[in-house]
Amino acid sequence: MTQHLIIQGEEVETPDLKALAKMTGAASIEQVAPQAFRLCCARRVEEVGPFCDAARLDWGYVPAGQRLAGFGLLAVDMDSTLIAIECIDELADIAGVKDEVAALTAAAMDGALDFAQSLRRRVALLAGLPATALEQVYGERLTLNPGAERLLREVKRAGLKTMLVSGGFTFFTERLKDRLGFDYAAANTLEIADGRLTGRVLGELVDAERKAAELRRIRDTLALSRAQVIAVGDGANDLKMLREAGVSIAYRAKPVVRQEATYVINYVGLDGILHLFE
To answer: Residue 178 catalytic?
Structure first.
């Protein structure tokens, strides 16, 4: 199968491109975006990864003819993937317990701590926090990761359905769903009583298993095959969801996720995903 090598970064130097083309025996170099290039008919060689890491370049071998329109669903994680923050850590900051909560979040994302156990412990630490803190985080602290809006716009233009699936909270996913036009969303619901968080989550937790199950449910509803799904995530609790997709993308992700994903994006924005498809 003919493969091309996609190279992209904040700054892609011409000498680096020439070196990679020589290294891989590429037939030609095509510019696909201001800082994204296709090395056509490139051989797979082990030296590409270390070279690109040293030059702070994202890279990926893509099958010739891999078109975005050939897929039917894009599933995206929320915290630290679609958006630049972990919402629960920001809520914890307002509650004065950020260090403890952030440590639990990091352990869960690295895969060192069971996600469901971690989430319950973290949410419990928020007990008594005024519910107005949710709006404060959304309005004052939540920012989209670079390229998020362009990614969603172009994916929808290509005819794909879009899904936001998160171990975070519905307060944020529902607002982002409306704002960005996601077709589907799934997340956890915080219990609120008398205007304050109770420290509990309502219903079944959206953990790693549930994320994967939600993706399968929507995939089946749309009568899609696994090969027609693209999934994007960053933490260990995304791994089972990513395995349900034909193309998985680790976006600025933990090492355990980078090891398994089809493609890894560390340096460019989310719209860099578009350059992996013709």
So the answer is: no
